[in-house]
Please model this.
Amino acid sequence: MEVPMVASDAVRWTNMSIPPIDATLGASCCPPPRNAAGSVHIPGRAGAAESTYIIWRCHEEFPSVLELMQISWRHELPIGLRITFGEPLAPFAGIFLLQEGVSKTERSIQVLAVTVSGVAYLIATKLLSIAENGWAPVPSEPIKCQLSNEFARLNGATTFTATSGFFCVGGQNGSVLCFRVGNGPTAFKDSFELKGVEGGLGTLWGLVSWNKNVGSVTSLVAQEINSRPYLFALYEDGSARVWNLAQRVRLFHQSLCSSPEFTGYISSSMWLGAGEVPMQVAVLLENTMVIGRGTICVYRWHWAQTDGMFRPNVLTVEHAFPIEQGRVVDVKLFADAIWILQEASTGSYNLFKSKLAGGDSLSTCRLQEAELADQLLQGDGKTSDDLLFALHTIGQHTHGAIRVSISELFMRRNFQPGCCQIGTFRSVLRSRGRQISDVDIKSLTIDGFQKEVRLILDLEDTIENTTKILQEWQNFNQEYLLAWKQNNLPYSLFVDESTNSIGLIRKSSLSLMRFLYHMEQLIYGRRISEQVEVDIFPLEWQRGSYATSVLEGLLDCMDSVASHLGRLARAAFHEALLSPNDNALNSVIASFVRILDIGYNDFILSRKSAHVGFDNLREKRKEHHHRQRKFCLHMRLGFLELRDKAGSWDRVLDLVANFVGYLLPSTRPLTPGASSVPSSRPAFYLKVLAKTASQILWNHFEAARNLLLVLEVLINMQGEVGLLAHEVSRIRSTLIPQAQNALIVNLILHCLGRTYGETPQTEDFSLQLSSLKIDTTSTAKGWKGGTNVADFTLMEILAYTFVNSPSFVCNQSTYGFPSPGLLVSIGSELTSWLLRGDSSDSRLSFSGRAVTLFSILLQHGQYSGLQKLLTTMEKHGREQKLTESGKNIDCEWSAHLHILAFCLLAQARSRSNQASSKDYIQQAIRYFFRAALGLGEANEVLQTLFLGQGVQHLPGRGEAAAWRLHYFEWVMQVFEQYDLYEGARQFAHAALELVDEAVGVSATENSETATMTAVVAAIKGRLWANVFKFSVDLELYADAYCAIISNCDAESKYTCLRRFIVVLCERKAYQILCGHDLPYAGMLERVERELHWKAESSDVRAKPNCYKLLYSFHMHRHSFRHAAGYMYCYFLRLKEESAKHSFSKNISVLEEQIHSLAAAINALNLVHPSSAWIDQQYTRQHSPDKPSPMKRIRVVSEDHGESVEAPTCTGGGQTTQLITSVVLEKDYALTMAYLELAQTNIRHPMPGGSLQAEEVLLLLVQVGHYETAFSLLFLFWKDTSLKRELEAVFKILTIKSVSQQCQDSLPVSSPDLFASNLKLLPSASISEASVIEASQKDMNAIVSVGSTAKSVWHALQSTLEKYKNVHPDLPVVVAETILSFNKEMELPLWLIEMFKGGRYASAAGMAGQGADPAALLRIYIDHERVLEATSLLMEFLKAWASLRPVDVIKRKSMCAVWFPYTLIDRLQGRLSELASSKSDQGVHYQNLKRLLSSAVQSHLNQIRIDSKDLVSCME
Model:
């Protein structure tokens, strides 16, 4: 049987190009390109481990490409070299080992290739060491030689061969031309022609007889015998000759077709055995009369030693093997066997083998084509409708229908190891129009290939679409099988003489051959070996034809059952067992037994075959009915014959019982050998072992399935075959469960060889080992896995462990390929190791052994494959327990569930789909809990999986609970490592429920109980801390809070509380932290303390702001004073920050200060006025140079006006400082002023704590923020201080107005603003420069941009009218400021009217309060405005004098009128001075003096008259 070893997809290829020797190619003088291959064994220099095998291939499809593949024990996988030539190659390649150099690590070979035009190439390349990854040519140019002229002398070359130092060419004319091959320019220069001249006395006769026509050379073989090169030649006329190449003499000549039976035959090929004498030779004789028919004759060649060398004596025929209808591709000879590779006339290939010693006939070896056809359900001989009927009948007569998806069935079979091949899939996809590049297809995974197949088939797997689906899959599989055969054409056989192994070189793969196992020999060939007789036949039976006939009858019944079901039905049986659907084993078996009992359902036939037609359907029903009747009759007769041969049913059942036990892999170890065992096994060696074991297990599975169905059919026919009740009971209670056990065991083990492995990530690998705590010996650390799709299977990982285990002993002394017998022996030993391990105890249950196997796979990260296997095993384990020892069943199945849960958990972490990941997590949680149910003191299997050795027991009496507590904590940690906190939280809760029981706390109060209580508190504290952590990670804050308050460990509790606060702040869950959702029972002060510490230790600009959180925290709990205090503390921190940054960068800080003060004020307003204050603790400063917080400090600075002390309260002998809402309001107003100044575009130092309130006030006025300025003014100053500051403010306002007017160059006499109706003397012109010089130096800089004189004067007027009632002297201040700034400037009309009390003068005189007419008169006189003063006085005198008659009585009252007579005297004196001056206006002032004097005199006279009248009235 063929076992695949290496596919070209897994080879690391290196490409090399060789340019042609000439641009113009010559005529063809060599055999045309065809598929050819060969192998060369290069022995090692440093021992057998250095042995190397070179496989070469030439392809007819790519005629100019030569492929070389290096296989050695030093490399995990073969390394390939593709050499591309400039023209097609002849089907030949020679490989020689170069002379060894000084280096011990590098060895080189020479590759000889010949093109069809006669050009020979000699290429040197280096053999690779273990550290190299590709081929490297030796630094020298390839040697090229044009040999077409030499080949022309031969009338064309027919065959080639080569050996060390010689290259031989056979020609059409019967000549053989030899060339010396060396490493240098002398290569191909020395040549000679071999003639039919024998050495010694025959030389003369040879010269005479050479002209005889001997025909063309059909085959040449060069071989070294006793270190001497010999050339064996076969000619078309049937003659064979031998030359000594070193001496160039012929040693032997004999005709092989001289016998009469070979008349009409020609000799075409020759193959030699091993290079030992006497040697065997195989010659193919082809019949010239019948094409495709021939005979392979095996000759024994006897040699004799004469003249110091070996000479062949005689050639005798020993065996003849006729070949019918086909072409012999290759033949390999061994000392005791012959292997023949034949291409049949139908295009298929066959491999025959026969023993030479016993004279056996040729037996057929099973190749991969047959195995692949079985797997793809091809070549059954049944129509698709018949297969469809079988598929739809399954499960129709059971309680629950068996659900088998056709697409899943074919997908599973198409992509199993040995069937899935990248090159074949590429060919099929491209033939169906799916163009995909080589790079893309090599990057596809198994899932990617399945997706591509679904795309090209475009099928929807529904019941109504079943017929179409089945037909499409059959067509696809047929195409795939044809493409696979074309892509894997057999080229040649290769042998390893050191081990007598034989393999097959295919187009895209390399495989080995093996012998059949005992069970396989029994099934396929009915050959009963001695081992089978010992194992199967009961002891009381006499071994011989009697026992053999009974066993053969049982096997015939099994074959009948399998044949009746058909290939697709058997595939559906297998798929139903592996399907993820919940198909119970008993239901599957009952469904198939129903088919065997009554056949297919007629209703299904009619419903599913409407497309067939009524007549065809009737014929099909008739055919099925006839076939079913025939099967039932055949089985009935077979059972009766079986009983008659055995003598009774009990004897038959005894045989069946032994046969069922034989269905499990044998436990007999290999015969140990004395030779050394290779220290390393490459990946291809493991692949061969794994495939061999998988083939053996599959045959065992099929035998168990057939036997199980035979037993079920036998029970159904119990009355017809005379089966008694106790015999039926024995079958049901013993044999059927044992057969089911064998079925499931072989199914699970076979799945190891059909499940692809996954390459784990490096970081996950160490994590898994540390978390599992499984002992990782050296046997589990060397597996490197694969890198491409379908690189390795789970069986290969286990095979690696097996070959490195101490129990593995190999009797093969070299590092070569295993022989066919050794391969099947090691493969059977591997299956036995999989079932029993290193122990030979047959009582060991498979479920217990499976724990060890799955643990090995778990170490290598094979989660997906393990999950599938364990799911299948767990599903069938519900009904069928895979062990006979009942006491350990719960322990072992707990371990299975534990590993399954771990695999699901690992896959959940790698899933990108969140919904799928959630499902995996839920399943893992369920399986972990189920595994814990079987955990106890006796469950050592599960304990070692997660705890290892030396685990300390908890004090107390709850042993089982203690183990579960340990287990739940371990699972919790695993979930935590994978960041799956929901599962970790559940297991933490589960562990908490077991603490009291595990520790075993009693109600008795003693020292032991106290110790246990402390232990309980510590364990619960740790677990509650974990619950808190997982809840926080899941954002389940209510659960996290519950975990905190439930924690009985104080230290752990408050650590969790601190973490809880930090996490809520980081995640901006402020509502949860500060709201009413969490009551913080007994922890309010700690929460406040943590937040306060965080606020003090963090940056004031950090987000979130802990001061605000404290404010919100206390406001929600109606602690308004604390809320106000923390916001005031926040204000002080911000105030410090504002002094550290530039002016333009502190606007946000000032806004925060305002908000903090506003929040503090609002909080205090919610408190009763008697308690509306803030404690001293919130006023502490953070700088070390600040005064001590215990000192009594002032809230209002002396710079702000009056030195006002803060309210204080006395208690406990100490005075505590309090902050009231008044202080907060002052800070709020001052900060608002800072903000407005900061938002104004002025060049001024940043206002802060260093500025006095007066300075802030003046700056506000200068920039135009009048409302803010006056608000600040009335808040900070009272009474006299208020009036003083008002005067200063209005001075600034007045100066600003005057400056703006000068800046806008308005006329001095504005009709809207000034009293221009008076006929005044023209004032001297006032320049802008003089105004600026007289004003403040930076006044123009602080005047707001865009303002006009009119708007400024109106602002001054409105402000003065608003606040003159507060300070009546404000108009006087304004007037004096205007005239002080510019004494020539006219006063605004509205200001004059404000002094006069209206537009017109009052008849009551110039008396008043504050800003009265007398004050205006004084201002005029003080500022030398005599004209305005005279006009003002004259106006009031005139108004008093010109009263209406009705108002005259008013003048007759006491104090009716008042005038400032002192000011009048001053004015008259000033007019006198001006009048006496010699200026041009002296006359004008003289006139004014005279007018004023006259008016005053008239006024005085009138006063005198009125006084007399008043006196008279009083008298």
User: Anything to note?
Assistant: The two ends are 164 Å apart (CA to CA). The first helix runs from residue 148 to 153.
